[in-house]
Amino acid sequence: MASLPLLPRNAGLALLHAYRATISHVYGDVCKYYPSCSAYSVGAVQQHGLVKGAAMTVARLARCHPWAQGGIDDVRPHRAFRHELTPHGFVVPSRKD
């Protein structure tokens, strides 16, 4: 029951994983930033949830244009992140709770 609130976050992560496994390979390494925009999106949704992570992704995509300087742009960790990640990157309740 503790994982029910994490369902939207993990549904979004499933879509992102599917995108990264299929469509992302068609484009190749074209992102000027590290990590790539799709990897950034996964990290943002993992750390901050579906809504805020999606907003962070939109802001990142707005910064990613042909005239961008690029560089390292990691997701800032959530101060109160209290979950664990599975080996496949899904978010589960912490065993400490």
TrEMBL record:
Keyword Repressor recorded: no
InterPro entries: Membr_insert_effic_factor_YidD
Keywords: Cell membrane, Membrane
Protein localization: Cell membrane
Membrane topology term: Peripheral membrane protein
Highest taxon listed in the record's lineage: Bacteria
Function: Could be involved in insertion of integral membrane proteins into the membrane.
Family, as annotated: Belongs to the UPF0161 family.
Protein name, UniProt field: Putative membrane protein insertion efficiency factor
Species annotation: Microbacterium mcarthurae
Gene name of the encoded protein: yidD
